[in-house]
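Same chain as my last thread, 538 residues:
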Amino acid sequence: MSSKLLRGTFILTLGTMISKVLGLFYIIPFYQIVGKEGTLLYNYSYVPYTIFISIATAGIPLAVSKFIAKYNTIEEYAIGRKLFKSGLVVMTITGISSFAMLYFSAPILADIVIPSNDTTSNPQDIIVVIRAVSFALIIIPFMSLIRGFFQGHQSMGPSAVSQVVEQLVRIIFLLAGAFVVLNIMKGSLATAVSVATFAAFIGGLGSLGVLFWYWYKRKPYLDELLEKDKGTLDISLKDMYKEILIYSIPFVLIGIANPLFQMIDLLTFQRAMAEIGLTEVAKDALSILNVQTHKLVIIPVSLATAFSLTLVPSITKAFMEQDQISLNRQLNQTFQVLLFLTLPSAVGLALLSEPVYTVFYEHDLLGSEVLRVYAPVAMLFALYSVTAAILQGLDEQRFTILSLLVGILVKLTLNIPFIKLFETNGAIFATALGYGSAILINLLVIKNFSKYKFRLVIRRSLLIIIFTVLMFIAAAVTYKVLLLFLSPASTFESLVIIGICAVVGAGVYFYLGLKTKLMYFLFGQRIEKVMKKLRLKV
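reply #2:
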C-alpha cells in the first residue's frame, strides 16, 4: 500500500473517530439542558431521520469513491467526472424527495409513536421536531457525493475535515440554541428541541462550505487529470448507476440496522408498557433505553470496529487472490481484535453502570439497571458490523439483506411479548436475539464461502474470556471496597470510582495479554513500539 494511501486512510479514520467521539459526548450537556423528556423528543425525530438519510445517501461516499478510484487507476478520468456531474443532480432530487417524504409524513409518525392512552404527550411537538430535522435531508445527500468524489481521488482531507466541522457546527448550534430558547427566551421544550434538531441542517451547511473551499483549491489539479484522460471507454449513466447500487447496498444495510431496531422500540415500547399498567414510567424508560444508555453502549463498539474494519481490505485482497492461508490469518486477527477490545469494555461498562450513568447524566437506578443489562449487547453490535463488512469483502453482500431481515423479524416478533414479561429489559433481550440471529447467518455464510475454520478463534476466545473474568474479579473487588468510602450518587465520587476501577481492571487485563504474548499476536509491531516508548518489560 502506498504511503499516500496510508496517510489518506489515517486522516479519514482520524476524522471519522473525532466526529464519532463528538457525536457521543455532546449528549452529556444536552441532557443537562433538556432532561429526559427533551432527549426522548429529540429521539422521536432523529431515529426516522437516520433511516431516511441512510436511504437517501445510499452509501454514496464509499460507493462513488470506489467507482472513481477504479476508473482513475486506468486513467479514464472523464468517467468519474461524468458520474459526479450526473450524481449532483440525482442527489439533489433524492435529497428534496426525502425531505418532502419525512416532512409530510411527520403527522403519521407522531400518531404511530404515541399510544392512544398517552394523555401527556403532544403529537404537535413531535411533528415540529421531525419537520425541523427533515431540512437536513436537502443538502446531506448532495454533500455526501462531493465527499465520495474527493475520496475516489485518494484525497481524504476534505472528507475528514468536513466531517469534523459538520459535527462541531451542529453541536455548538444544538447546545447554544437549546440553552438560549429555554433559559433566555423562556421558550417551550418543543421549541428548544426543534432548534436542536434543525442543527443537523446548519452542520450540513458548515460541511458544505468546507467542501466548496476544497473544490476551489483542488479544481486546477482535477482539470489537469481530465486532460490526461485516455478516452477509450464510454460507459452509459445506466451502467454507472447499476454499478454504484451494487457497491452501495451493503453500506446502507450496515448503517441502517441500528436505527431500524430503535424504530421498532419507538413504535412498540410505550404501547407494550401501557398494556401492563406502566404508562407513567414508559416515556422515561424509553428515553433511557433509546437515548441515554444507547449512547454509552455504542462507545466500545465504535472503538473496536474502527480497529477491526481496517483489516477488511486485506481480507478482500486475500480472497480475490485465493490466498487461503492469508485469508484465514486475516479473519482470525479481525475476530480476535474485535473480541479482545469489546468484551472487557462491555463487561466493565456493565460492572460500573451506576457510576457511569451518574457521570454522564444523573443518579438514576432505572438508568443504571438498564445500562447494566444493555452493555453486553455492545458485543453483538460490533460483531454484526464486522461480519457484514467481511461479507462484502468476500463479495457475498447479498446475504447481508437476508441476515438483516431475519434480525428485524426476530426483533419485531419478540419485542412486545418480551417487554410485557421483562419490562424495559425485554426490549434489550429482543434486540440481542435479533442481532444474534443476523450474526449467526453472517458467520455461517463466511464459513461456507471462505472455507474458514473457527478453531483458533474459539481457543483464543476462551483465553480472552478467562482474562475478562479475572479483570472483572479485580475490578469488582476494587469497586466494592471503594463503595465503603465513596457514593455512586455523587458525580465527582463516581468519577473517582470509575478512574480507579478502570486502572485496576485494565492493568490486570493488559498485563495478562502481554504476559501470554496474545497482544503481540494481535497487534504485532505496534505493541512493541509502545512498550519501547514506555520502557516497559513484561
